[in-house]
Backbone:
């Protein structure tokens, strides 16, 4: 259900191709399935997409090994603003992802980002990067570790480096070199 993430990213459905979200359906990741199962009441494919995006948001917030309250609030606001997640689901999701990112971060980063790279259009991936930059900048600073992680994600999503540079310029006053 790419449409769900499109709603999150404020994108209109593009008339989508039937197979455009095949990574999430046929190659269902046990990690995603395990967390999805804990989110009672959510449709599993929808939950997997929410989890994938939330995982990326947490990945950026934890790039400097610490998620600030501001970053966590921005993640919650991003997810809450477009999805009808209960406070309980949102809290559980953030707690699970925070822990999973610390334990499995580098091993899950590639596979989840690859799935998103295969499933989304370039415009959708740019919207994802905009969300990630907002999370990184939520505490009013952009650390070198966060910038490095954002650059890696840009590349892993198959986006041109110019996308990263354009977004970084928008946040230049928050950079802490």
Residues:
């Amino acid at each position: 259900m790419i449409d769900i993430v499109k709603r999150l990213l404020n994108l209109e459905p593009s008339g989508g191709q039937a197979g455009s979200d095949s990574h999430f359906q046929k190659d269902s990741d046990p990690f995603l399935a395990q967390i999805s199962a804990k989110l009672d009441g959510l449709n599993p494919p929808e939950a997997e997409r929410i989890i994938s995006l939330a995982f990326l948001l947490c990945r950026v917030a934890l790039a400097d090994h610490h998620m600030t309250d501001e970053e966590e609030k921005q993640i919650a606001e991003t997810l809450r603003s477009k999805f009808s997640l209960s406070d309980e689901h949102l809290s559980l999701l953030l707690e699970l992802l925070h822990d999973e990112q610390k334990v499995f971060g580098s091993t899950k980063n590639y596979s989840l980002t690859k799935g998103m790279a295969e499933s989304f259009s370039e415009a959708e991936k740019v919207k994802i990067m905009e969300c990630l930059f907002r999370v990184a900048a939520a505490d009013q600073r952009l650390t070198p570790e966060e910038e490095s992680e954002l650059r890696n994600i840009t590349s892993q999503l198959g986006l041109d480096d110019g996308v990263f540079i354009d977004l970084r310029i928008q946040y230049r006053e928050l950079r802490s070199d």
User: Anything to note?
Assistant: Residues 72 and 129 are 17 Å apart (CA to CA).
